[in-house]
Design goal:
The structure holds 2 protein chains of 2 kinds. Chain A is mainly alpha-helical. Chain A is built from 21 helices and 4 strands. Chain A has a 4-stranded mixed beta sheet with strand order 1-2-3-4. In chain A, helix 10 runs antiparallel to helix 13 and helix 10 packs parallel to helix 14. Chain A is globular and about 70 Å long. Chain B is mainly alpha-helical. Chain B folds into 2 domains: about 575 residues, no CATH class; about 70 residues. Chain B is about 70% helix and about 5% strand. Chain B has 24 helices and 3 strands. The radius of gyration of chain B is 28 Å and the shape is globular. The chains are: A mainly alpha, B mainly alpha. At the A-B interface, helix 8, helix 10, helix 14, helix 16 and helix 18 of A face strand 2, strand 3, helix 5, helix 6 and helix 7 of B.
């Protein structure tokens, strides 16, 4: 149903331009004079439709896909420059159209700092995936065009998810994005792709179903009216505690499946091992972030009481995800499954930071969502480059490749170091902030999560050792090192690791207000240092 | 940054008081890190054109950092002692609400001391490597990693916050990993690199948690902020300070190869010998000592943690010395000696204000004579077909005169021959160890004194087995002296081994450090439990005994080419006191069990569970699908059903 919705929106929303200058509405969304968010989503949607319509013999399909995804990236960057981190509005770049006023559903878009960060991260990763998937459909033709069309359609849906400020609209995008993923896995994956795609779909639908009930429940119990699904109208409500907890669980379960948290993670390793590396990247790097995004946007803001009630359980589950995911990753021989398990471990950190209810941990989590997008993308794509050369994703089929493909080995190592959160890499900043903020409230949880950094060193370095080191393998003299195209795939990702590692301040500045606002809605106060430093301490102190 | 108030709440704090905004060279102190970092980036990114000139560029940039450091020193000497510490804010690094951290540099007496040690020894080793690695096809990469190491190490010692220090801390760990595994087509070398990184990560776990605890307790992670908060809080925050002290110690143990995280250092000798000299002897492995001394305000109020530092030092210095007696591999014997000598520094650092300055003093002199001896070992290997087994050396003094002479200086320095570098620095530690009340001065003092004798024994054994006695060479050995690019750095380090201790002693190095290390001035009030001449005399006697014993067994007597079985102690020491077996039992076996259990649980338990739910849903929806003919419709219906059910439930709860 959602493609229809989106198709009609570019025209209508442009025709219904908001007033010329940004206005802070009473509801806390500053409207935008230009529908930036709709435009960012419409570009890949248009590209997808074009690719679906292209005749099979057209060879320009993938070039078009790259062009559209790069255009979306450029527009998202321009939109990000219009975003004002100093604004007091909860959402910016707002757009609003009536859709089904009888049920309070509206086409309402807007972003806070977290939203714009996720959108820009997504529009960076999609063109990288298009480039990485250049040869994924060797037979070419219509089948190849459709592959890239699904990718672009997925991008459009994901941007819709991150930009929706209407809970129902969010839900529509949330479910609609399953469709392109289902086809990306089920039609283009490995030998067991059908089983993997079906499992993914069923588990996601099960979560989505429970969430739908909660979505409707929120409307029924909320203020109602023609904009009764707007996030800003649904925050700060007081529910009956039991109802609030039920609604919380409804949302949380769907998000935990998507995130994926232990023990509802099992669809991921299977999906990741069957999908193409580009699909896995989109799946884990971007789509799974919707889970943690949803926890912050909906669980914490709409159900603060219930969120605090659930905190002990969620923290334990997050810690289990961290340690368990990392431990299982160590034992994997399939590179793609290994990456999937590392992600389960990393998502544990993100969830931990969200439910630590401190500013530092919260900002760390949001930043982690961005950094993990880049590092996971790089991991999956490197694994794909290896598999393309060797025809296997089993680690035991490799050894000594550093002598054959030194540049590939170097990129692989840098990517691995980002995954094990080496300082200097963006992932370190976010992981450390999560632990630092968690320690303020739950020192023992922070200590247990720190075990994750030791285990991460083990699964990454053992992997590198088994694939890259050792004597030069026989019969691989003609295996090429990274091609120019592959270097262009890796360069932006590695640049992102380093920039976000040494100078994350611009991103943090954008994220901070949304974290403060979330914590305000959640009604928590920051823990204070027990023995604060005397006034005038130089730097890094509570200000 | 904000200027600090001139008057501070407590008198103890006065030592760390004056941190002025950076002026002069300190204003561009970031060049220290930037020059070698740029070299590393350049050499790694521009590949083919730099295969030949790359090593030269890297060496020049490393000397560039030394020049910056030397100017910093000269400027610093020109200021009055209390105005020497300077602070430079670089950029806003982590602005996160209540936690707002700038990246900045703290240029004080302690950091400048390290800067000069790192850049001078580091640059000499760059020069040495020009000769040593001349024929290695990957030398461009080698020099890139060396530059990366220098940059990270300089960041470590100049960082103004513990978190930025942590960046350098793991950065040197990375450089160490890359260089240990430089020849990683040899599988054991790749394993050695992993072992080093993972053992260090266990230590980093401690350092990371210490930083978190600092923030939770004091609301700051800057070095000056924590110093002042710890001093202000004093015993009120005693428990947290003890926790932080232990966590920092764990970090120090990982990086400095102290008990119980010592096992990686021996294996790290897999790296090229210049790496062993620079990273695994002179600089990186001493970072743990730097950390403890840097964080001394924490230990000043956490006596239990400080005692733990001393005990760790005492155990390691003894253990390293015994292992050193049993090793036939020249590099592993030197590695054991490094462990032992860093044990001395740790012990001194744990003694409190009486020992901080001595720990750093010994660290600096050790950096010179140990690096010199490692380079000497490299020179010997260069001439002996890259072999390391001392049982096949012997009588090399005639063939490699410069190597022999420089090694002689290092050997005399480390055993504490009167008026050479080690005599001044190690003797001070032994004296300090005899200070205190109750059992401690006797245990620590006698340990350091006896091990001084043991040190003399194993270092003389190494020296005699290599350079003296009968020639036990293999048939096609043609030992020869190394080229000037290698011998000149050795000669310079030998001069340092001889003279540096005396020069620093005479030049007032301990007083120079006093504003940072605090209580050195108070040392006058602490008298050792034995008179100083007795301590010095006793130590010299034990040293002479050790040398004599080694002379009898390894110079005068024939050394068998195959190692004799030896006593149980020798066998245990040769196997590093079964450290790998212990780690295997304590860490690897349970770790593997965890991995296997988790994997099994995931494959059978959790997955079956969700699959079961999946099958149930699938079964239901297939039945629905049969009714409704089509998947989408069945989904719509399921949704509808679910909605109705949940709404009914909500309605019932509400009413």
């Amino acid at each position: 149903m959602s493609p229809i919705v989106l198709m009609s929106t570019p025209m209508t929303s442009v025709s219904a331009l908001a007033p010329a200058s940004p206005v802070v509405t009473a509801a806390g969304t500053s409207a935008s004079a230009f529908p930036w968010l709709t435009l960012i989503g419409a570009i890949p949607l248009l590209g997808a439709l074009l690719l679906f319509a292209l005749p099979g013999r057209a060879q320009v399909g993938r070039a078009l896909a790259l062009g559209f995804s790069l255009l979306a990236f450029v527009v998202s960057v321009v939109a990000a420059t219009r975003f004002d981190p100093g604004s007091t509005a909860q959402f910016q770049l707002g757009e609003r159209l009536e859709w089904i006023p009888q049920f309070g559903v509206s086409y309402s878009l807007g972003v806070d700092g977290m939203g714009i960060a996720m959108i820009v991260m997504s529009t960076i990763i999609v063109p990288v995936c298009v480039l990485a998937g250049w040869h994924d459909v060797p037979e070419g033709g219509r089948r190849r065009n459709v592959y890239f069309a699904w990718m672009l359609l997925l991008e459009a849906m994901i941007i819709g998810v991150f930009a929706s400020t209407d809970v129902f609209l969010f839900y529509v995008f949330f479910e609609a994005m399953l469709v392109p993923v289902y086809f990306l896995i089920g039609s283009y994956g490995g030998p067991q792709r059908h089983a993997a795609a079906t499992k993914f779909l069923l588990v996601s639908l099960a979560g989505g179903l429970v969430m739908l009930a909660a979505v409707i429940g929120v409307y029924v119990l909320g203020p109602g009216g023609p904009d009764g699904f707007l996030v800003e109208r649904l925050t700060g409500l007081s529910f009956d505690p039991l109802v609030e907890r039920l609604l919380f669980v409804g949302f949380f379960l769907a998000f935990a499946i998507k995130a994926p948290m232990w023990p509802v993670h099992t669809w991921l390793p299977q999906a990741a091992s069957q999908a193409t590396p580009a699909t896995s990247t989109l799946l884990v790097g971007i789509l799974d972030k919707v889970g943690t995004f949803g926890m912050i946007r909906f669980c914490l803001q709409m159900f603060p009481e219930a969120s605090r009630w659930a905190t002990p359980v969620v923290i334990v589950l997050a810690l289990v995800s961290i340690v368990f995911g990392a431990a299982v990753a160590i034992g994997q021989d399939d590179m793609l499954r290994l990456i999937a398990y590392t992600s389960i471990s990393h998502f544990g950190f993100i969830v931990l930071g969200i439910f630590a209810f401190t500013h530092v941990a919260g900002a760390g989590s949001v930043l982690y969502m961005v950094n993990h997008g880049f590092s996971t993308a790089a991991m999956f794509l490197m694994a794909g480059m290896l598999a393309q050369r060797r025809g296997s994703v089993r680690i035991s089929d490799y050894g000594g490749w550093q002598r054959v493909t030194p540049v590939l080995a170097g990129c692989f190592l840098v990517t691995g170091l980002a995954t094990l959160s080496l300082p200097g890499m963006g992932s370190f900043v976010s992981e450390f902030l999560v632990m630092l903020g968690t320690f303020q409230r739950y020192p023992w949880a922070a200590a247990v999560s720190s075990l994750g950094i030791i285990l991460a060193a083990i699964y990454i370095l053992l992997w590198y050792q088994r694939v890259m080191t050792g004597p030069k393998p026989e019969g691989l003299e003609r295996v090429p090192d990274l091609t120019g195209r592959e270097k262009w795939v890796m360069a932006p990702l590695i640049a992102a690791f380093l920039v976000l590692g040494f100078y994350p301040a611009p991103v943090l500045d954008v994220i901070n207000p949304s974290v403060s606002s979330t914590l305000q809605h959640a009604g928590v106060t920051e823990p204070r240092p027990t023995n604060p430093a005397p006034a005038g301490a130089m730097n890094g102190s509570a200000k | 940054m904000t200027t600090l108030p001139l008057s501070l709440p407590t008198a103890v704090a006065a030592a760390d008081a004056a941190v002025a905004p950076a002026q002069g060279m300190a204003g561009v102190a970031w060049l220290l890190v930037a020059l070698p970092l740029a070299g590393a980036a350049l050499l790694l990114l521009v590949r083919r054109p730099l295969e030949r000139v790359g090593p030269i560029i890297a060496t020049v940039l490393s000397w560039g950092s030394f020049v910056v450091g030397a100017i910093l020193l000269v400027e610093m000497i020109g200021r009055s002692p209390e105005a020497r510490a300077q602070h430079l804010t670089l950029f806003s690094w982590l602005p996160v609400g209540t936690f707002s951290l700038d990246a900045g540099m703290l240029i004080d007496q302690l950091s400048v001391t390290f800067v000069l040690l790192i850049t001078f020894v580091g640059s000499l080793i760059h020069v040495y490597s020009l000769g040593y690695m001349a024929h290695d096809p990957d030398r461009r990469k080698f020099f890139a990693f060396l530059n990366l190491f220098v940059a990270a190490m300089l960041l470590l010692v100049t960082a103004d916050s513990y978190l930025l220090l942590y960046v350098g801390w793991e950065g040197v760990g990375l450089a160490s990993y890359l260089l240990i595994g430089f020849w990683n087509w040899n599988p054991p070398y790749a394993s050695a690199a992993n072992k080093a990184f993972i053992a260090n990560r266990i230590g980093d776990f401690g350092l990371g948690l210490a930083i978190m605890a600092m923030f939770a307790t004091f609301g700051t992670v800057t070095i000056t902020g924590v110093d002042r908060a710890a001093q202000a809080a004093g015993d009120q925050a005693g428990t947290m300070l003890t926790v932080i002290g232990f966590l920092l110690l764990l970090g120090a143990c990982g990086k400095s190869a102290q008990f119980p995280l010592q096992s990686w250092l021996g294996d790290a000798m897999a790296g090229p010998t210049p790496v062993s000299a620079l990273i695994h002897a002179a600089t990186m492995v001493t970072a743990g000592v730097y950390l403890v001394v840097r964080a001394h305000p924490v230990y000043d109020h956490a006596p239990v943690a400080a005692l733990a530092v001393t005990i760790v030092g005492a155990i390691t210095l003894t253990m390293g010395a015994i292992i050193g007696c049993a090793k036939d591999d020249i590099k592993k014997a030197l590695a054991a000696s490094t462990m032992s000598q860093i044990g001395y520094m740790m012990l001194a650092a744990g003694l409190g204000p009486v020992g901080y300055a001595f720990a750093i003093f010994h660290l600096v002199t050790h950096g010179f004579f140990k690096a010199g001896m490692f380079l000497g070992a490299g020179s010997v290997m260069h001439g002996m077909g890259d072999r390391v087994d001392m049982r096949t050396f012997g009588g090399l003094s005639g063939k490699m005169k410069i190597t022999w002479a420089t090694f002689l200086c290092g050997w005399l320095a480390i055993i504490g021959f009167p008026f050479l570098s080690g005599f001044f620095s190690k003797d001070k530690i032994i004296e300090a160890a005899f200070v205190g009340e109750g059992w401690r001065p006797w245990v620590f003092g006698l340990t350091t004194m006896l091990v001084a004798g043991l040190t003399a024994f194993y270092m003389s054994r190494l020296f005699f087995m290599t350079f003296h006695g009968k020639r036990r060479w293999l048939e096609d050995d043609h030992p020869h002296e190394s080229p000037a690019s290698m011998t000149v750095p050795m000669i310079i380090l030998a001069v340092g081994s001889v003279a540096l201790g005396g020069v620093l002693q005479a030049g007032g190095f301990l007083d120079w450090l006093a504003p940072v290390t605090g209580g050195h001035a108070g040392a006058a009030h602490h008298e050792p439990v034995l008179p100083i001449p007795v301590i010095t005399g006793g130590t010299l006697l034990l040293v002479a005994l050790g040398v004599g014993l080694a002379w009898a067994r390894y110079w005068r007597a024939d050394v068998p080419v195959t190692a004799p079985a030896g006593s149980w102690l020798t066998r245990a020491a040769a196997r590093d006191f079964y450290q790998d077996d212990v780690n295997h039992g304590l860490l690897v076996v349970p770790g593997n069990a965890l991995v296997e259990a988790a994997t099994l649980a995931d494959d059978s338990g959790v997955d079956q569970g969700t699959d079961g739910v999946g099958r149930a849903v699938l079964g239901a929806s297939t039945r629905l699908a049969r009714l409704q003919n089509g998947f989408v419709r069945s989904y719509a219906l399921t949704m509808l059903l679910g909605v109705v059910l949940v709404l009914a439930a909500v309605w019932m709860v509400q009413s």
